[in-house]
Amino acid sequence: MDESGGSGQPRSGTDESTERRPDPTGPATDPTHPDAAQPDERTVDTRRADPARGDATHDDSPDPPAPENNPQDEAPQSSADTDGNGSTDRPDTQDTIPETPHSDTPTPHDHQATPHLDRTLAHSGTTKGSPPQRPKDPRGGLLMGRPFGVPVYVAPSWFLVAALITWVFGGQLDRVLPELGAARYLVSLFFAVAFYASVLVHELAHTVAALRFKLPVRRIQLQFFGGVSEIEKEAETPGREFVLAFVGPLLSLALSGVFYGAMQFVEPGTVPGVLLAGLMISNLIVAAFNLLPGLPLDGGRMLRAVVWKITGRPMSGTVAAAWVGRALAVSVLVGLPWLTQSGALGSDAVDNVGMDTVMDALLAAILAAIIWTGAGNSLRMARLREHLPELRARNLTRRAVPVETDTPLSEALRRANAAGARALVVVDADGNPLSLVREAAIVGVPEHRRPWVPVSGVAQDLTDGMRVSAELSGEELLDALRAAPATEYLVVEETGEIYGVLSAADVERAFVKAMARPN
C-alpha cells in the first residue's frame, strides 16, 4: 500500500543525487503555462526510498524510463516538477502549482531526501494532534428515544409496512372476530406497533451485548422488514461474535414464550387472546428466520463465528456465511411460493394463480433481494475492514515546507521545489502553524501575479479538526477526516513537530486502490 513517486509512478530506488533533480511528486505544471499540456509522467523521482518510513517501490504499473537531461539543464519548478522545456532565468516567477489530484497514487512523506530542512514545531497543544470529534448522529427517520444512549429511529418505510400489517391483520380479524366491525383496524394497528416493539427489544439485545463488549453502536433503525443495529466495530473474538448474534433470536424466543404464557390467562376467542397469539407466532417466526445460517441474518453471523473459530480467519467466516446467505436467498425466492401453493405452511393448496399467489411471490422476491444484497454488503464490508489498516497517515502524507505569512507565493513555490516538497504550511515568526496553502487556490492565481500574492491570501486557517496525528491509520484516520471535512490536513508527530500535509484526495485514491486489490 505504501506507494511512492509522482504521477502514479513508483520511486526508482536508485542512489542518484537529488540536489537539482526535479521531483515528479511535486506540483503539476501550471495550466496557464503555454507548455502545460505536457504530462508530469515525463520524470521519475530518483531519490532513495526510505524503508524506515515504509516507502515501497512496488506498483501495478511499470517504471517509465528516466529522462536523460542533465539536472542542471532542467528548470526547478516551484513545487518540484518540470514543464519539460529546459531552464529559466527567473526562478522566482517561473512557478508551477502543486499537483492537482489527478495522479493515480499518493506520495509518501520522504524526509531522507532533504535532511537539511529543519522541522518546525506545530505547538498544537497535544502531542498527537487534536483527537477526532465524533460526527453527529446520522439521521435515519423519526427519533423515538435513546435507550442506553443509542438513538432509535423509525424509518419512513415503517409506516408503509405498519399500514400493510394493519390491512392484512384486519382482514384476518374480520373472520375471527366479525363483531368488531371497523374497530378491527384499530386492533390491527395496535398489533403492528406491538410487533415492532418486539423487534426493538430484539435489536436492543444486540445493542446491550455490543456495549458490554465495548463496541460502539451508532444507532438502531426500525424499517420495512424489521430492524437494524448499526455496530461500528467488529467483535474481537469469534466467541463474542457468536454471543452478539445469538442474543437477538434468543430474546425473540423468550418473548414468544412470554406471550404464550400470557395466553393461558385469557379467553382464546377474545381480542386479547388473538393479539397474544399473533405476537407469540410473529416472535417465533422472527427468531426462526434470524437463525437461518446465512448473512446478513443473525444465524449467518453465528456461522461466521464458527468458521472464524475453526480457520482462525474472520474473512473466511464472512465468505462462507455470505455464500450460504446467497444460496438462502435463492431458496426463499423459489421455495416460499411453492410452500404456500402446496399447502405445506398450513393453508389450503391451490391449483390456480390468484392474488394470494402473486402476493406470496412478491413477498418472496423482496425477502430474497434483502438477503442477497445483505450478503453482498457483508462481503464488501469485510474487504473494507481488511484493507483499512493499509491507510496510514504517515505513508500518505506529503512533505511540506514552512513559510511565513508575508512570503510571496512565487518564492514559497520556489522553496518547495528546491526542497522536493508538495505542500506549504504557513507559520508565524515562532514557527507555529497558522494555515495550509490550498492547491485549488494556487491554480486560480495567474503565474505573473504570484510574486505579489502572499501565501496567506491562498491559505485556509487551521482548525483543531484539521490537525491529525501521523500515527493514525485505518478507521481512526477515516473517523478523524469525517469529523472535520477539508481538502488538506496538517499532520503532526507525537512531539508536536510538523510532519507534513495530508490531502483528502490522496486518501481517497489510496482507499480505492486498496479496495481494488485482490485479497
Low-confidence stretches: 1-137
* pLDDT averaged over residues: 75
- Derived structural class: alpha/beta
- The H/E string reads EEHHEEHHHHHHEHEEHEEHEEH
Q: Radius of gyration in whole Å, from Cα?
A: 31 Å
Number of strands: 11
Strand order of the largest sheet: 1-2-3-4
Overall form: elongated
Quaternary state reads single chain
Question: What does it look like?
Answer:
The protein is an alpha/beta fold and 519 residues long. It contains twelve helices and eleven strands. The strands form three sheets. A four-stranded mixed beta sheet has the order 1-2-3-4. Strands 5-6-7-8 form a four-stranded mixed beta sheet. The protein has a three-stranded mixed beta sheet with strand order 9-10-11. Strand 5, helix 9 (409-419) and strand 6 form a beta-alpha-beta unit. Helix 3 packs antiparallel against helix 4 (271-290) and helix 6 (314-342) packs antiparallel against helix 7. 41% of the residues are buried. The model is unreliable at 1-137 (pLDDT under 50). Residues 1-142 are annotated as: Disordered. Keywords: CBS domain, Hydrolase, Membrane, Metal-binding, Metalloprotease, Protease, Transmembrane, Transmembrane helix, Zinc. One of its GO terms (molecular function) is peptidase activity.
